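Exercise 7.
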Amino acid sequence: MTANESKLDSIIDEYNAEPGSLISILQDIQAKYNYLPEESLEYVAQRLDISRVQVFGVATFFKAFSLKPKGKQQIHVCMGTACHVRGSKKVLEELERKLEIKAGDTTADGEYTLETVNCVGACALGPVVVENEEYHGEMTPIKVESLLNSK
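Solution. The predicted structure, written as tokens, is:
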């Protein structure tokens, strides 16, 4: 999916093309495309009359922004201390094996993106996997199959 200038214009116009609204504009673009297409960053720089370096700097500084397309299903495996001690590494390895991707990648069909996070704040439920906004506690490698088949 590539950025459409009229869609970008509507987002940028909502913020009156204010350079101080760069983060909000990038958030809205990412919400629309599920990532930040490179051409959208160049277009934003042009419309806000700021340097491309500044726009790319913001887009790459915050972990919340992605320059790579994300899957429809985003799976985050908590690798915090409590989850790690309770076996999150084996859960991650099973997800990588089943999806045939490594953490940080998206499946070729665009269905799944697999990522690790440092802590999701649900240590009592560890190991925890978050699929989109849904938390799955006390995960095991055996439960991975049912997690992937639940959608």
